[in-house]
Amino acid sequence: MATTSDIRNGLCIRYNNDIYKIIEFLHVKPGKGPAFVRTKLKSVTNGKVIDNTFPAGRKIEDVRVETHKFQYLYNEGDTYFFMNEEDYTQIQLPKSALDVPELMKEGEVVTIIINTEDNMPLSVDMPLSVILEVIHTEPGVKGNTATNATKPATVETGAIVNVPLFINEGDKIKIETAKGTYQERMKE
Hints:
Layout: E1 2-3, E2 12-15, E3 18-28, E4 36-43, E5 49-55, E6 59-62, E7 65-76, E8 79-84, E9 90-94, E10 109-115, E11 121-125, E12 129-137, E13 150-155, E14 160-164, E15 172-176, E16 181-185
Antiparallel strand pairs: 1-6, 2-3, 2-6, 3-4, 4-5, 7-8, 7-10, 8-9, 10-11, 12-13, 12-15, 13-14, 15-16
C-alpha cells in the first residue's frame, strides 16, 4: 500500500476495480481546508482518461510493475506488434494501450510496462521525442514570417504536425511525443 505522498508520473494504481496509470498530478495545499492531490489517470485497459482528487494521506493500492524495452515491428489494423529486445519474444497490444501510435515508426524502441502479478502488458511509454521525416507540406510564403506562423506537415508515419514555415519536404524534424508538437529541425 502507498499513500498520496508516493504519487508520481507513471505510477500504476488499482482504483475503481481497474488499473490506472498516473499521467499528471499536482499537490495542492489551499489556504483553508486540508491538502489534496489532483490527478489525471489513464485506464490501461480501455485508454480512458479521468480526473480524480485524492485527499492528502489517503491510502492507494499501487500495482507492482516491471519495465522492458521492446522494438515496434508493425501493425495490422488496431493491433500493434512488438519484440522484446532481450529474449526476442513477440507480443501484440491493442491501439488503446498506446499513447501516440501515430508517431511510432517501425523499429522504434519503446518501454512497455508489465504487471508482475499476471505478466500482462499495461501500457507503452514512448521516448520523450522522435525524429521523423516530413513527406508532405505546402511551401512557406516569403514575407509571412513576422509572427510564429505555422503550417501543417505530414510526417512519414502519417501523423500531421504543425511546423514553422521554413520546414520543407524531406526535412527531418524532432517531435515531442507527450504533446505531439514540433521541437526542432535536425541537421543532416
